[in-house]
Amino acid sequence: MAPLAVNLILVPRPSLSLHPSQGVSLGDNITLRCHVPRLAAWVWLYREGGWFYSKGKGKEQDVAEFSFVSTKREHADRYWCQYRVSWSEEASEKSDPVELVLTDLRYPPSSISLHPEQHVGTGTNVTISCWNKDYGATFLLHKDGSSDPLQRQDSSGGDTATFTLFGVTPADSGTYRCSYHPKNYSFLSAPLGDSMTLEVTPSPAPPVGDPICRAPVSPKHLEPTGAKGRSHGNLVVAVLRGCAAVLVFSLGLYFVLDARSLWTRRDESAGVTPEMHKSVQFQGPSKDSEDLTYAEMPAAIPCSQSPTSPTAPQSPVIYTTVSTDLPR
What's the pLDDT score for residue 166? Predict the structure, then answer.
């Protein structure tokens, strides 16, 4: 049985764009361009409101343009495009939608505020508030240089919307504005309101040391906040302890030397000299009638009198009898 041959015709999806893409007010001209990747015979432009435009395209063209001159409120809507190739009855899928939002200058602009302040550090959460007392239904946050709104928020029946930028970085620096869609008009917009400029200061870079000489730091050795002050306090305590130790040692040495000096003065006040402790000195021999020789020797005996007595103590004398006669 011969294999069944099936021919598949793939029709790529088109894309739709607005020109100009933003800042279009009521009464301005606008062009919608449908880009087709294949040569097409017919291109359709669909509007969400229900009606559509069809347009034949030349064989050499890959873009079909639909222009509105002096736009009106009914032109503000959501659009798609679709095409059909010339050699087939099969049509492509619809493109992704685009929204034609027209600015109505008759609505008053919204107000804006920024908290905590316009100059903040990296990582700060910044809150931007937008409000309008009478007309605001859905608020949009814009940043200069960005084609699309950053955020949008329904006012939920109130007149204020709050947008939060979490953990801002220097990339969030710039000028911010608010706009809003009036009630019951999703594709009409009030003009942009006053601006607020946000400046985010980058965090200081950590010191970079020599990778060869710098040793890795273990997490357990990382000092918490305030460790530098505590290290300085520990150094002061160590110095004070060293000074106290030196003072105690000096006082101890002083008391030892003072005690030694005190004992020396007591010995001197008692009539004892260092030579008396080593030898006995005779004052001189004398004889009496019985051939006895008397010798006078000073003796060191304890003195009961206080060393501080004003009366100088007398050196005691001991007499001894020495016989000089030889045995007969």
Answer: 96
Phi, psi (deg, nearest 5) at residue 161: -125, 140
Residues 6+ apart with CB under 8 A from 325: 291
- Residue 14 near residue 82, CB atoms below 8 Å: yes
Among 3-7, 179-183, 212-216, top mean pLDDT goes to: 179-183
CA distance 35 to 15: 5
| Token pair for 171 | 């990339």
C-alpha 293/C-alpha 301 separation (Å) is 24
In sequence order, the 6+-apart residues with CB closer than 8 A to the CB of 27 are 70, 71
Query: Distance between CA atoms of 96 and 14, rounded to whole angstroms?
Result: 8
* Model confidence pLDDT, tens digit, residues 176-190: 999 999 888 889 999
For the segment 26-80, what is each residue's pLDDT rounded down to a tens digit?
A: 999 999 999 988 777 788 999 997 778 887 766 567 888 999 999 999 999 999 9
SS (H, E, C) the chain: CCCCCCCCCCCCCCEEEEECCCCCECCCCEEEEEECCCCEEEEEEEECCCCEEEEECCCCCCEEEEEECCCCHHHCEEEEEEEEECCCCCECCCCCCEEECEECCCCCCCEEEEECCCEEECCCCEEEEEECCCCEEEEEEEECCCCCCCEEEECCCCCEEEEEECCCCHHHCEEEEEEEEECCCCCEECCCCCCEEEEEECCCCCCCCCCCCCCCCCHHHCCCCCHHHHHHHHHHHHHHHHHHHHHHHHHHHHHHHHHHHHHHHHHHHCCCCCCCCCCCCCCCCEECCCCEEEEEEECCCCCCCCCCCCCCCCCCEEEEEEECCCCC
